[in-house]
Amino acid sequence: xxxxxxxxxxxxxxxxxxxxxxxxxxxxxxxxxxxxxxxxxxxxxxxxxxxxxxxxxxxxxxxxxxxxxxxxxxxxxxxxxxxxxxxxxxxxxxxxxxxxxxxxxxxxxxxxxxxxxxxxxxxxxxxxxxxxxxxxxxxxxxxxxxxxxxxxxxxxxxxxxxxxxxxxxxxxxxxxxxxxxxxxxxxxxxxxxxxxxxxxxxxxxxxxxxxxxxxxxxxxxxxxxxxxxxxxxxxxxxxxxxxxxxxxxxxxxxxxxxxxxxxxxxxxxxxxxxxxxxxxxxxxxxxxxxxxxxxxxxxxxxxxxxxxxxxxxxxxxxxxxxxxxxxxxxxxxxxxxxxxxxxxxxxxxxxxxxxxxxxxxxxxxxxxxxxxxxxxxxxxxxxxxxxxxxxxxxxxxxxxxxxxxxxxxxxxxxxxxxxxxxxxxxxxxxxxxxxxxxxxxxxxxxxxxxxxxxxxxxxxxxxxxxxxxxxxxxxxxxxxxxxxxx
Length: 486
Known about the structure:
By secondary structure, this protein is α/β, with parallel strands linked by helices. The protein folds into 2 domains: 4-114 and 284-483, Aminopeptidase (3-Layer(aba) Sandwich), CATH 3.40.630.10; 118-278, Glucose Oxidase, domain 1. The protein is 37% helix and 22% strand. The protein has an 8-stranded mixed beta sheet, sandwiched between helices. An 8-stranded mixed beta sheet has the order 3-2-9-5-6-7-8-4, sandwiched between helices. Helix 10 (319-338) links the parallel strand 11 (299-309) and strand 12. Helix 1 crosses helix 2, helix 2 runs antiparallel to helix 17 (468-483) and helix 3 runs antiparallel to helix 10 (319-338). 55% of the residues are buried.
């Protein structure tokens, strides 16, 4: 079921790995000795190199390795929340698969949080126009790291606010003892224009900071309008961050439809809700980042990271977030080995643990490898679903973008020639970015990503809906390594 879209993403991965060819510092400008004005077509991009890239592209199109890997992660293992048995099984599985490819594999210990979802029910027990002896069910899910209500739950009046400013404008006595609903909508128009992550960034602050803001005003629980672009009555989970200066109160997300229902009823009169959330925070669990190396032929101490995160939220099966990212990284190793390529520098595939609710894996890696950071040549992460690729995000010296001009021309034939200098490429590679390691990630069509993100609908069929892009991304990662031979 793969087609031309897949080629595009694989092409992106290839272009990213091209960066391995020579050292380009992310924060420093070139010195006179290093040729301060690189040519538009650097010598590293020889005709032979570009020809070999195309060979890799064809090899990626003929391979179903990435799809088989994400299918196993999503269907056979399932949701992989940090600390769970499924997360442990995924570590074991990915390590075994990479060993079978001939990679040097090690598991690097990471202590991760172990939060477990419990009962999640809500109902309107008092509202205008209510028929006698009836309630209205409210669909919801707990936010990650939420504390629990009592087993009997909370029964309290609901107030609705649009944003933080409206909440702050209310006297504390109006909020105290109530359930606060932040009804801040995800900007669908912005998403339709291809700016989904910008829309997400504007709304996600209510998920992260809303519960503590409500608690400071005396609220007994906090709900948010789900952060997503599709209205299928699907609640979207995600991590909330309790502040140290506020009590921890139960926190959940309701779908857009339920948020609108509650808001409409409150405009007519008082609304009371019965809320039961019983998650648990258990002791931290030992887990691991999966590290798999294909040693460089000339500079084995220098590394190029190709990565995705192995953990997922627990509502769906973690196919697009981020089984796809792990799968294409594994495909990079598969193609390199299959075609008997000999990259100059070590290609390091990493399946990160705990991106979703703590980023413990990336933080531990940065700590463990602090003395080797200068030998990290480039870092790549894919964690934005399975949508059609349109280009490459680059966090590096602007000269890097110029270097990529010949590659962008090839990518443009597939509609994926955008090169964009950005401030951030990925959550797990952020510690490396901050240390000055050049970072890359594919730019993808993200218009529909937040239809499924962090919901029960993050399942394998969503990979099939954009399946052609999966091979494309795989091809892009792996091609990087081929060019490194020059």
